[in-house]
Design a protein that fits this description.
The protein is of the alpha+beta class. It has helices at 13-20, 23-26, 41-48, 70-80, 103-117, 156-172, 189-199, 201-215, 220-229, 254-258, 264-272, 305-316, 331-352, 358-388, 392-460; strands at 2-9, 60-63, 89-96, 124-129, 136-142, 232-237, 240-245, 252-253.
Length: 461
C-alpha cells in the first residue's frame, strides 16, 4: 500500500542557499534529519535528487521543468508573477510497502501521480529514493503556477485528492490500498474528496457529457465514440473506464468518481435497456420580417458609471444573452456561459442597488455587513434557545427557523462577495478597455495612412 504526505517550505532563500551549499548537511541521512529540516527549494531539491539515494539521478523526472535547472526555472516563475515571498514550494512523498514495488514501477507511479495532481499548472520534480527498505517517491512542487501565477493551496480537499489519485494509480498496478477511515483528529478525507468533485467544473462537465453520451447512444461502441467526439481521451485501467479532457492532465475514473452505476457493465445495461433519446439539433433563431420597437427610445434611462462599464465590457468580450441553448455545449462554451452568467449576475446586482460609483459599492457593503451581523446574532440566539429545550417538536420548529435564517445569511454573504468582486474587477476592466481603445485607435491611424498612400499613388499616376 502507498501512503502520502505533503508539507510547505517557506524559509528565506539566502539562508537556504547557504544551507544547500554546506556539504556536511546535504550528505546527512534521511533518518537523522526530520521533514522540518528541509526549508527551501534548493535544499529540498538537493535532498530529493541526491545521487546516493536515486542511483546517480537515474530515477528523477522533471514535469514542466528540467531537473538540473529546476530551482532557476521555479524562481523565474515567481519573479515573473511577483510572488517571491511566502511559501516557496511544497514537499510531498509517497511511500510503498517493503518489497511491494520495483524502483522502475515506483518511479512510473510517482510520475503519473505528479502529472495528474499538479502537471497541468505547476512545475514538479519527481525522484525515487532507494536508500531505505521502503522505496519512496519525493515531489518538489513550485508554489506558484506557471500557467496563471496563482498559488497552490495545500488544504484538506487537495490532500484528499492526492490520496485518492495515489490509490487509483496503485490499484491499476495491482498494489494494496489503505482503507478509508476517520483520522484521530476526526477528519474524514472521503467527505473532502466528494466536496472537491462537487466544486470542480471539470468533474461536473465530465458527468454531464457521460450522461449525454449514454442517453444518445445505441451501442456501447457508439457511447465511446461520442465521448471521443466531445474531446475526451478514453482509457481502460483495471477493467474500468477513465476519461481525460485537454488541457487537464487529471484522469477521471468514472466509476470511483460518480458511483457503481458508471461501471462498464452498468453502462452497457443502461444503453441496451431503452431507446436512445432524440439528438438535439442547433436551431438558430431567424426572422422573416423587420422588428419594430414600441414607444420612444428617448425615455429609456441610459446606464451610467459602473453599470455602463459592465455592459460595455460584456459587449467587448462578446458575452450576449442566451436565446437558444437547446443544443449540446462543449466544455469551452460552458465556461464562456458561466462567465456570462457571472457578469449578468453582477449587472443585476448593480441595477438592484443603483450602484454607479465605488463609494456606492462601499456603502452597500457596509449595510450588508451590518445586516449579516444582525442575522448571525439572531441565529446564535436560536442555537442557544434550542439547547435549553427538551421537547423534540419545539426543537424541530427552532431548527426550521435556523435553516431559514441560514438561507438568508447565505444570500447576504453572496452579495458581500459580489461587492468585493466588483471592487477588484473594475480597475482591471478599465485597464483592458483602455488597451482595446488604444489598439482600435492605432488600427484606425494605420487605416488612414494606407488610404493616404493610395491617394498619393493615384495622383502620381
Amino acid at each position: 500500500m502507498a501512503t502520502t504526505k505533503i508539507w510547505k517550505v517557506e524559509k528565506r532563500l539566502d539562508h537556504v542557499i547557504n544551507y544547500a551549499t554546506n556539504e556536511e548537511k546535504t550528505k546527512n541521512n534521511y533518518s537523522k534529519y526530520g521533514m522540518d529540516e528541509f526549508d527551501s527549494i534548493r535544499q529540498v531539491m538537493t535532498y530529493a535528487t541526491n545521487p546516493d539515494k536515486t542511483e546517480k539521478l537515474f530515477y528523477t523526472t522533471g514535469i514542466n521543468c528540467e531537473v538540473k535547472d529546476a530551482v532557476k526555472q521555479m524562481q523565474f516563475v515567481k519573479i515573473f508573477y511577483r510572488k517571491e515571498n511566502g511559501i516557496l514550494a511544497f514537499h510531498a512523498y509517497q511511500s510503498f510497502n517493503e518489497g511491494e514495488v520495483t524502483p522502475e514501477i515506483a518511479h512510473e507511479i510517482g510520475v503519473k501521480l505528479a502529472n495528474e495532481m499538479w502537471g497541468d499548472r505547476f512545475q514538479v520534480v519527481v525522484s525515487t529514493h532507494l536508500n531505505t527498505q521502503h522505496i519512496h517517491n519525493h515531489f518538489v512542487i513550485n508554489s506558484v503556477s506557471f500557467k496563471d501565477g496563482k498559488k497552490y493551496y495545500s488544504n484538506l480537499t487537495n490532500t484528499a485528492l492526492l490520496r485518492k489519485i495515489s490509490d487509483e494509480i496503485c490499484e491499476e498496478y495491482g498494489l494494496s490500498v489503505l482503507k478509508e477511515k476517520i483520522c484521530k483528529s476526526g477528519i474524514n478525507f472521503e467527505n473532502f474528496y466528494k466536496k472537491s468533485m462537487r466544486d470542480s467544473d471539470y468533474y461536473k462537465f465530465a458527468k454531464e457529457d457521460i450522461d449525454y453520451a449514454i442517453e444518445h447512444s445505441w451501442t456501447y461502441k457508439e457511447f465511446l465514440k461520442r465521448l471521443k467526439e466531445m474531446g475526451y481521451e478514453v482509457y481502460f485501467r483495471a477493467n474500468k473506464i477513465s476519461v481525460r479532457m485537454y488541457p487537464h492532465k487529471r484522469n477521471i475514473r468514472i466509476e470511483r468518481a460518480f458511483g457503481e452505476e458508471y461501471s462498464i457493465e452498468n453502462i452497457q445495461n443502461k444503453i441496451c435497456s431503452r431507446y436512445p433519446s432524440r439528438e438535439e439539433v442547433i436551431k438558430p433563431k431567424t426572422y422573416d420580417r423587420r422588428l419594430f420597437y414600441k414607444g420612444s427610445t428617448k425615455k429609456l434611462r441610459k446606464p451610467k458609471g459602473i453599470i455602463a462599464l459592465y455592459y460595455y465590457y460584456r459587449y467587448l468580450i462578446k458575452l450576449y444573452t442566451r436565446n437558444n441553448t437547446q443544443y449540446k455545449l462543449t466544455p469551452k462554451m460552458r465556461e464562456e456561459v458561466k462567465k456570462m452568467d457571472e457578469y449578468s449576475e453582477k449587472i443585476r446586482f448593480l441595477c438592484k442597488y443603483k450602484i454607479e460609483t465605488m463609494s456606492d459599492v462601499d456603502n452597500v457593503k457596509e449595510k450588508k455587513q451590518e445586516e449579516m451581523q444582525n442575522i448571525l446574532n439572531t441565529r446564535n440566539r436560536l442555537y442557544y434557545k434550542r439547547q435549553k429545550l427538551d421537547n423534540e417538536n419545539e426543537k424541530d420548529s427552532v431548527t426550521k427557523e435556523i435553516i431559514n435564517v441560514t438561507s438568508v445569511l447565505q444570500k447576504v454573504r453572496k452579495e458581500i462577495r459580489l461587492c468585493d468582486d466588483i471592487y477588484d474587477s473594475v480597475p482591471r476592466m478599465k485597464k483592458q478597455i483602455k488597451e482595446v481603445d488604444e489598439k482600435e485607435n492605432e488600427n484606425a491611424k494605420e487605416k488612414k495612412l494606407k488610404e493616404k498612400k493610395k491617394k498619393v499613388r493615384r495622383y502620381e499616376r
